[in-house]
TrEMBL record:
Protein's name in the database: Uncharacterized protein
Highest taxon of source: Archaea
UniProt keyword terms in alphabetical order: Coiled coil
Coiled coil spans: 22-110
The keyword Coiled coil is annotated on this UniProt entry: yes
Length: 110
């Protein structure tokens, strides 16, 4: 069995002198247990509150990440469409330049 040390001030010690300490401890044990249960419950409730707050923060962060992802997806789709448009435009311009080159070569040859 482990050892328990109880520290008392002088007056309290003198008032307990001559009393049955074991009986006194047994009498007060239920109150002590109730106090410990209440303290433990309070500590657990505080922990639950902190965890719930952390959960709300994490849910907010997840929501922000979801919004960021959706925006990134829309941006990617826009950029893909823009790249395709520019590729086609570039192809058309290249054809026009080639045509113009041929026309100029024909003019210089004649």
């Amino acid at each position: 069995m482990s050892e328990i040390k109880i520290v008392l001030d002088k007056e309290k010690f003198k008032s307990l002198k001559g009393r049955d300490i074991n009986a006194l401890l047994r009498e007060n044990l239920p109150r002590v247990e109730e106090t410990l249960k209440a303290e433990r419950e309070e500590a657990l409730l505080e922990k639950i509150a902190k965890l719930e707050e952390k959960l709300r923060e994490m849910e907010g962060e997840i929501e922000e990440l979801g919004e960021f992802y959706e925006k990134a997806l829309r941006d990617k789709e826009f950029m893909t469409a823009e790249r395709e448009r520019l590729r086609k435009e570039n192809e058309e311009l290249r054809k026009k330049v080639e045509e113009r080159k041929r026309e100029l070569e024909e003019v210089h040859e004649s």
